[in-house]
Design a protein that fits this description.
Oligomer: single chain
Order of helices and strands: HEEEEEEEEEHHH
Strand content: 15-25%
Shape: globular
Length: 132
């Protein structure tokens, strides 16, 4: 699988080609920098922060989401959107980065606000990545 630079290059190449069927990528919802008290990232109906889907569940911190990078700071997940960053801090991390950097993952887990069960789930996800 391509690296983040590869993912960004692929995304940019697809923009240049004006492709409508962009490739889907997996991302981890990361709260280690933002340290928000909310349970996760609220989905949006459009690429506007204020256009929140407050009825549906959030993308929980530590969970994995799969979507299409819109190359403009937004991830399209089905018919809705998630911001890639918030208040200048990245909150969606490419899952492949988590697989390659176990030390970074450990640091993020220690700084993450949330339930201890989520930390155990993240450890098992990292172990699964290294088994592949």
């Amino acid at each position: 699988s391509p690296s983040v630079g590869g993912a960004r290059s692929a995304c940019e190449a697809k923009l240049v080609d004006d492709a409508l069927d962009r490739e889907s990528w997996e991302f981890v919802c990361d709260n280690s920098r933002l340290r928000a008290v909310e349970q996760g990232i609220t989905y949006r109906f459009s690429k506007e922060l204020y256009d929140k889907d407050i009825i549906s569940s959030v993308a929980a911190w530590g969970s994995m989401v799969s979507g299409v990078d819109q190359c403009d700071g937004w991830l399209k997940v089905g018919e809705r959107y998630l911001p890639m960053s918030y208040q200048g801090m990245q909150i969606l991390i490419p899952a492949e980065d988590m697989c390659r950097s176990p030390d970074v993952v450990a640091d993020q887990m220690l700084g993450r606000v949330g339930d201890i069960r989520d930390a155990f789930l993240r450890v098992s996800e990292v172990q699964h990545c290294h088994e592949q």
